[in-house]
Specification:
Length: 449
Amino acid sequence: METKLEKRYGLVTAIAMVVGIVIGSGVFFKAEKILNATGGNLPLGILAWVIGGLIMVTCAYTFAVMATKYEKVNGVVDYAEAAAGKQYGYYVGWFLAILYYPNLTCVLAWVSARYTCVLLGWDITGGPCMVIAGLYLICSFGLNALSPVLSGKFQVSTTIIKLIPLLLMAVVGTIVGLRSGMTVRNFTNVVEETGDTATLLFTAVVASAFAYEGWIIATSINSELKDSKKNLPRALLLGTLIIMGVYILYYIGLAGAVSNEVMMAGGEEGAKLAFKTVFSEAAGTIIFVIVVISCLGTLNGLMLGCTRGMYALAARKEGPRPELFGSVDKATNMPSNSAIFGLLLCGFWLFYFYGSNLAGPWFGPFSFDTSELPIVTLYAFYIPVFILMMKKEKDLNVFKRFVMPSLAILGCIFMIVAACFAHRMAVVYYLIIFAAVMAIGIFIGKSRS
């Protein structure tokens, strides 16, 4: 067994990783939620997309600056270690491996399964949907664990494919809506006048966090990226700007296809109806197939990060059994043991998600939204990194050292406050579970020391 991964990905794959991991499910899955969160207030919903996008871009730019200086095993863990020390880097890596990666991955498997069931006309809440979600997890794991190169090609292909329906809806939907008057109607009419504007906006921005999240996972391949110190920063900045533009244009395009009331009531069916309204029954179905493929592309990218979670710790001789999780299979050049552990964690959190949000609440007050709260926690982890970056990186100019990190910190704080407004007491119960997971990680770390 080896202990080092070879460099096999180029700039195009890195950009496709950033764009492909983010775009593919959240924009479809959360468009309806954001509209509901704002009471059908379309301009407020667009503002939520803009704020969420700017937070993503400022954080990505700040990490891109660090990516030009540090290259080890797992980008965000590298940057946390460089800024705040080895122990803090270990805490970030532990959180990513145990909570962040598997939670997002299992939710994406479920979203992919839901859209598949909508396409087939099946029940989206029952057992068949969860079985399909499990199969998608296993297939994505197999693709990543057995053929990393094929996984990279699949990521590039699905990224190109998934942009088709979004750009078509953005352009054609807007033209159709302007001609029919639907766009103007949706922009000027609020469906429900409920709640104060600040609370509505906070809830909508937190919902957009899931749609925008995932770009940081692309940093997990920095040790496998050719000329990483140049290509990773380019991929982070270009990728996040592309994502933000596509999302806002798609959201406007939807407003030209169907009324806000239909989108708010329909969920996934609302998105399907929007495509059929603009592109006809047959064309709408074909494009919806592309939507399912795009979701699977996102799942593939998330699984890529999930399979490397424990390896990122083991490569630093940290975490449980580093000799086991740090080994790399010679045939596939993949950390196989780390990959299997990541799949098992996905299975566990998929069960937890099902019991918390679909069949339960089985876990009482601990039934929280695992698609949003772990993301906000990661933004909290960013803050010390950005603060210490401003203190330590004295060779950077004022813009890179102070301006962008400060904006990124403000964005992170905004996201944390917004999560507290949106989820209220659920945040407290989530933090209890988070504390338990981190306590296990601290215990393991001290035992190894």
